[in-house]
Amino acid sequence: MALILDITGAQKRFEQYTQPVLAAFASSGIATGEQITPPMIVDALRQLFTVLSNNVSDWDPDLPEDEPERIGDLTIGLLMDMATWADRLGERSAKTALEMITVSIAAWVCAQHGAIHTLEPIVNGLAILANSRSEPEELKPLAKLMGEVKEAASADYAADLDSADPHRPWRILLLNWGITATRAHDAAEMRKAFGALLHHLPADAPMFFQEGRQQVLQGDFPEDVRSTMLDAAESAGHSLH
Asked: Containing domain of residue 86, as a range?
């Protein structure tokens, strides 16, 4: 299976993993009141996947220019709602799968040059994908997508003023981008990620680079990857004095 699914593949995975959530909800007896229920979310997402499956060039030309961005954001938000239900109902594998599907939607939004407004499930999905792969060639497209997601989310998240929360999605995205680019043995992507770390997370960067320095000195890395990390660590070390 491809690391990052296209829309058709994402929809197939969605249909597969929502079934146990729907079954668990049906047997749960949960009083929902005015909550949006899993069946309602699934119906809405099926409609959205139908839209996403069509080429944007075939959409109604009278639609607003940012319609792909709006559709993508709505899809990601509903997938996050469904993942929350999966977690509540004890369907952990479904929650994981749904977060991974948001990565496919994020890739689609990036391809349309849209902005990303809902970042948390995408960051979770990217981390799951990165942790499930070890080969550099598999990790390269993932590192590249992390960089694209960073650009697409910058308008909403780059200020990142909540420095007291180490688990905020923006911080995790930037750190994971740097780690994944290094594991992918992609020196060019490393330099992009490291520049973003220095710019957006100056308090975190020195420790990141020192830990990275230890990793590349102990591990089996190409020379250009090793030198890129060592140069970054040296520069970050100088900035402390």
From this structure: 1-118
Which residue type occupies 144? Answer: K
Residue 66: which of 139, 117, 125, 2 has the closest Cα?
117
The answer to whether 102 touches 125, Cβ cutoff 8 Å, is yes
Domain count, the chain: 1
- The mean per-residue pLDDT over the stretch 129-139 comes to 93
When pLDDT is cut at 50, 70 and 90, the band that residue 13 belongs to is very high
Residue 100 lies in a domain: yes
Q: Which band of pLDDT confidence, cut at 50, 70 and 90, is reported for residue 161?
A: low
Q: Is residue 163 part of a domain?
A: no
Q: How many angstroms separate the CA atoms of 170 and 166, rounded? A: 10
**pTM, 2 dp:** 0.92
User: DSSP of the chain, one letter per residue?
Assistant: --SS--HHHHHHHHHHHHHHHHHHHHHH----TTSPPHHHHHHHHHHHHHHHHS-GGGS-TTS-TTHHHHHHHHHHHHHHHHHHHHHHTT-HHHHHHHHHHHHHHHHHHHHTT------HHHHHHHHHHHHT---HHHHHHHHHHHHHHHHHHHHHHTT---TT-TT-HHHHHHHHHHHHHHHTT-HHHHHHHHHHHHHH-TTTHHHHHHHHHHHHHHS---HHHHHHHHHHHHHHHHTT-
Sole residue written with tokens 């899809």 = 75
